[in-house]
Amino acid sequence: MKRRFNTTGACSAQRHYMVKLDRRLKKIKEDYVDDGSYFVINRGRQYGKTTTLNALEEYLKDDYLVLSLDFQQFGTEDFADASTFARAFAEVLIEALEISGVEDKDALLSPLREFAEKKDNGLKDLFVCLSSICISSLNPVVLMIDEVDSASNNQVFVDFLAQLRASYLRRDKIPAFHSVILVGVYSIKNLKLKLRPESEHQYNSPWNIAADFDVDMSFSPTQISEMLEEYEWDYHTGMDTGVLAEEIYAYTSGYPVLVSLICKRIDEKIAGSDGYETLGKAWTKKGVEKAVSLILKEGSLLFESMVKQLDTYTDLHDVIEDIIYRGKKITYSPEHRSINLGVMFGFLKEENGHVAIANRMFEMCLLNLFMAEEAGSDAYSQGGSDRIAFVQNNRLDMTLVLKKFVDYFTEICSEKDTRFIEKYGRKIFLLYLKPIINGTGNYYLESQTRDERRTDVIVDYLGEQFIVELKIWHGNEYNERGERQLLDYLEFYHKDKGYMLSFNFNQNKKTGVREIKAGGRTIVEAVV
User: Fold this and answer.
1) Would the pLDDT of 90 be above 90?
2) DSSP H/E element including 373
3) Helix (H) or strand (E) holding 46
4) Would you call 269 exposed, middle or buried from its count of C-beta atoms within 10 A (0-12, 13-18, 19+)?
5) For 429, left (φ over 0), alpha (ψ -120 to 50), or beta?
């Protein structure tokens, strides 16, 4: 069977190219399941949760009886009341046991079938039945429930969690599940948030016995490289798997579906297209860049979900906008509602004690979103009007872009106060730049150099790269330090020419554009 890169549903090693999960499964088993933990795997959408759960079920089967459920099997009517839910739960367990192949399944099925036939049993009766199964089973019983947050708006499910908690606390006296694994996007404390959004109930959890789950489920460059090696074994493209893995990781930070999306676009859309006539031409850094551009243009279910959450949680939208536009340093605090939600959804992460966008592709998508929200702005319209002058022979004249922007900014912002320019200056430039490269190029903000005083913009236009440093003027010494930093950055990117846009608040400032020669390189500096 010909294998593919998969971006929909769970992955199978027989049908799909996928990273090796052995180390992850070993850690989950040894650190959590063997220890008898009840825990939650909550990660962003399309983060490989179901794939991991399926593989874990297979990995555990020699030592445990694994009962694996998916709450998507339950209909809305199954949560009508405790009795209905208990019967539906028993019926799904019966189905799981029937296909399990365990040698003692008949003995285990008997109490479940008897329970399911009765119509007046409740949750307490269900847990008495489950306890009898745990007594009878030849192996310790592990319960897995996928898509657990699909039930989170139902009080009966919260009551079910409370019963799980009670059985955990009494398990030294009354046999119970050896380990319980719940999987979903929302954490258990936020299940309560979804059910009862009033502030006094937001963090009241009925399942506070859950162990902290600290297993990295993102893909490392090594794992990505191993997956690409399997593809290379089949197709002999001549790609440098290590270099390509690092490039893919630079865009995705190992977010599973984004890794697979890039690979899938290269394999299925880019290879064979103009400029990428062979697999060898497609599986290059340029091919990765092209794939990222396609994904951002086409959109994805993951990006749609992200936009939906930002519409729902406007405070999260504001936090992300502050990080992207202003380089604002926000101290990481998991207790902060917006930060907690952003991390839970997979959009944000902790980096050196501060909040950061989770990966470069998310940042590019979010930047495109914010730009689109302000497509009617004067800066965006002006950039679109000036665009024709900036591109000659398919090459972007970045020096001219800066010259025209200085004229435009001086005209519209000469009367603005310092606070306005400090807050919105970089945003105005990004809005001006967007229509100039739109449809042909991309740009992203370099997270490693971004702060409230400085932001580096990396512009890709038809294979040519431009590095533009945006900074707030804080004196000659700071400016000279910025020039040195830009020179270091140019050396890293093997570029002879860089660009600097300084927002200067001095009344006697000299605006305009000049060239500086330093360290054998050229810096085009624009001052507004």
Assistant:
1) yes
2) helix 360-373
3) none
4) middle
5) alpha
Q: Give the per-residue SS3 of 275-327.
A: CECCHHHHCCHHHHHHHHHHHHHHCCHHHHHHHHHHHHCHHHHHHHHHHHHHC
Q: Which amino acid is at 270?
A: I
For residue 112, give both structure tokens.
């479940």
444-469 tens-digit pLDDT: 887 665 555 667 888 888 878 899 98
Boundaries of every domain in the chain: 20-201, 221-298, 301-361, 375-527
The first and second tokens of residue 59, run together, are 């990995």
**pTM of the shown model:** 0.86
Query: Torsions phi, psi of 41, nearest 5?
Result: -100, 100
Place of tokens 């660009």: 499
pLDDT in tens, 130-176: 999 999 999 999 999 998 887 766 788 888 988 999 999 999 999 99
Is the separation of the CB atoms in 257 and 46 below 8 Å? yes
**What is the pairing mode between strands 497-503 and 38-42?**
unpaired
How far is 221 from 201, CA to CA, in rounded Å? 41
Strands 141-146 and 65-70: parallel
List of E strands, 35-194 = 38-42, 65-70, 141-146, 179-184
d(CA 305, CA 321): 17
Task: Report the distance separating Cα 71 and Cα 78, nearest Å.
Answer: 10
Half-sphere exposure of residue 116: CA atoms within 13 angstroms, side-chain side: 13
At residue 222, the pLDDT reads 97
Instruction: Please give the Cα distance from 41 to 57 (Å, whole number).
Output: 14
325-372 pLDDT, tens per residue?
A: 777 889 999 889 899 889 989 999 998 899 999 999 999 899 888 888
Name the residue type at position 305: S
pLDDT (0 to 100) of residue 378: 87
3-state secondary structure of 518: strand
Cα-trace Rg, the chain = 28
Distance CA 237, CA 240 (A): 9
CA end-to-end distance (rounded Å), the chain: 61
Judged by DSSP in three states, 519 sits in coil
The closest of 213, 94, 89 to 161, measured between CA atoms, is 89
CA dist., res. 260 & res. 219, Å (int) = 10
Residues 475 and 468: their CA atoms lie apart, in Å, by 19
| Per-position b or e across 28-47, b if 16+ CB within 10 A of its CB | bbeebbeebbbbbbbbbbbb
CATH of 20-201, one of 3.30.300.30, 3.50.50.60, 3.40.50.300, 3.90.1800.10: 3.40.50.300
Choose among 93, 88, 80: nearest CA to 156.
80
CA distance 382 to 278: 40
Residue owning tokens 């079938």: 113
Q: Could you tell me if 92 and 77 are in contact, meaning their C-beta atoms sit under 8 angstroms apart?
A: no
